[in-house]
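Entry:
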Amino acid sequence: MTFTATDNGDCTATFEIVNTTSSDMNDVVYWTGPDRPTEAPAFGKDEGSEVALTSTVEDGQPTWTGDKKYARGYAPTTATANIDFTSVAGDGDTVEVAYRMTGLERDDYDNTLKTVTVTGCAAPTSNGSLGSIFGS
């Protein structure tokens, strides 16, 4: 199982999980702001994080939540989510995002903390005032 986050240049990032297991409950979680971790928190200690997306399993395959069966070697399924960081951008042009995967069978994925710099968050500059339109 692999996971990534890619900056889209418009104050959004695309998170992706490629899953080859029966786990339909692995999450990619993320943090922003000054309290985001700089090292991976202990397993299960993801306070203050937001869920970006959850792993999916190909239709018709047994799943952990439905069948209580954990298996490897499934055909890869890809889950993606586009997250908008405009609300946390503040006055800056970029947002630093820390993210990692959580879930079952930690041997099947990298649970280290990763980062992505989300760009394109600066407010557009004004090319004039509306006063000339409204006569002010």
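The mean pLDDT is 87.
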